[in-house]
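Follow-up to my earlier ticket, as requested here are the two runs.
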Amino acid sequence: MPSESDVIIIGAGAAGLSAAKELSRLGLTYTVVEGSHRIGGRAYSEEIAPGVWFDLGCAWLVVDATNPFVAIADDLGIKLGKDKSDLYKEENHIFQRNGEPLNKDQRTACLRFYGDSYKAISAAAKQGDDVAISDVVDMDNEYSAPLLCGVASAWGKDIDLVSTKDFDSATGELGFHALQGYGNLVAAWGADVAVSLNTRVERVDWSGHGVTVETPKGTIAGRTALCTVSTGILASGDILFTPGLPDWKTEAINSLPMGTENKIGIYFDVDVFGADGRGHYSTWNDDGNAAKVDASIMGLNTAAVFVGGRHGVWLEKQGQQACHDFAVDRVADIFGHNIRKHVNRSIVTAWSTEPWTLGSWACALPGQAHQRANLQRPIDERLFFAGEATVYGGQGTCHGAYQSGIQAAKKIARQLNAES
């Protein structure tokens, strides 16, 4: 690692990597340190079967063609499921209750409830009422279960802990997948950035003129530092700041706690879905079990089962076998019990205890949507912050993190150029 750089970047996820690339374009030097053994952060793909990839973290290129990773994938020759995106749109969403699809009238009523709920959330946000979503939707509606499950998986927090303003500011449809994995796409794009892996940051000292960052591999000096780690890591105290962070920054961190969405990928040894079965499902039973299921829209013999919020954390604590069983049960609810004999392998995530993030993404608590701006705000023009937690519109997304890194790099460049 160099002895001194213009910018020390902490974290090699999408935000840290995009900041490094932008700083290089602007003629500034940087050092990127990453505690994990790999780059990409919460973008991570694993093979669930030979040549078949499963995204443990971000999976959808949200907002379709305007997502910057679409152009990146095209430049790298990486195939995207652009022709599949309509299957993720809400009008094509499939609802399954107690093992049976909703009939036409039930589906119409369910979608009407969804529409009314979104209108109520938006109205509250636009009136300045930054309250919990649970305060403005009909929790007693017979179709509230899939909505609650959807919010918990999309935000990582249950409906009583999600801000109406934060929800309303988020943009974009689910988009589409990268056939060989979104995590692999991010890793391929970031491969040209020099990163010191397995380099955990222990302390950030900004008491002097510049910034020093202490790691087990030594101390790094820089004119500035850009912190792109999750709010989970910032809140945990794993990184010590000297002097301590100001109260307004700590308040922002604590107001944007990490939510948890866990995913279980299941690989089948035959096609258990059929061409007509591929799609995006909400499935729930009156016994309280509910999940979202992606039934192999990309044409592979895999299903991804999503569960978030308190249930997602609870299920994670029960262990991998419990998560596996839950996921197989939910797929069986949709496609019948015969699928069980074709289960070949599963991959189970555990994001709430993932040591480098301590959660899936940051979720603004009710009344705290404004804190994303405070989280992004620099301290003393030397400590800068980026990541999905610092943006509006792209919060919780890989492309939001990417855009935040570029924005931070430009802000740092203006600051350093003004000092020169």
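Run two:
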Amino acid sequence: MKRPTQSDVAKRAGVSRATVSYVLNDRSGDVAISTETRLRVLQIIDELGYQPDTRAQSLRSGDSKTIGLLIPDIHNPHFWQTVEGVEEEARKAGYDLLLAHSNANLNLEDYCIQSLSRRTISGLIIIKATNALSSKTQKRLLQSGRPVVECSDSPSQFDAIITHYRDATREAMRHLLDHGHKSFAFINGVAQLVVGVDRLEPYHDMLDAAGIAKSEHNVINCGIAPEEGYQTAYKLLQTENRPTAIVAINDLLAISVLRAAADLGLKVPEDLSVVGFDDIELARYLNPRLTTVFRETKAEGQQATKLLLERLKNPSLPIRTLSMPAKLVVRESTGPAPY
């Protein structure tokens, strides 16, 4: 079937094509269009199933009404909370969302940014897989003139939402040290070792300050998949001098640690304390409930989208940076050291 056009709507409603356009774009206040005419046009639009051609609208306005969003890991619920915030705010402003993920890989991140930039998007929100974009990618984004917002743990050349875990990691380590723990491990499940320094550096600093030798910090690198975290924890917890406290770089891997401990007959927190990061929704429904570090992830997505939309309206604004706090949430997975 032939797709209905504005002309078809106008002919059936007995009005001009311009009148249909005014009604569709909610500009009936610009010209004298009666309520009766407006309702008749809307009724015909519904009867014909007319849908505006967004490509044509983009060409006319120069705005595709589409926001590109890049996330590091499509499997981690933490990032879906950000997606929810971006999508909710974008929809309210009449924008669609185009999503890509980098699998926490620097090369794939660059590829995804290039791919999104080739699309007719209005602007781009980037949740980085690494602590910094490549210089080539930064240059390309700056040259494009397209609004960009970064969500990262450090200042940017673009508008940015700063979201780091440093202070909250210190709080988590202090919590464990105050409970008498002296034997630690850090499950560093990342695709590249430059990720997660906002957690790893405070971890080292707090253990150094407590007089625990660097050789006993037990940072174990693995991949981002829960199975890799499980296998890493399962092996670690069978060693002669197994840790009494494990810090995992995110909640998904902390859940893997809990499963490994249970399979080995260890009780949490009696035999082992476990801390995660992100406070995904599942964390509060586990048995035991997971001690973790909370961030307002949905709000981060909302704020990033607001910055982008403001930049679209006023490209001459100075670069803006917003900081979003994180805090420790103590639940049932941490307790006094067993010895």
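The only thing I checked on run two: Residues 58-62 have pLDDT under 50 and may be disordered. Let me know what else you need.
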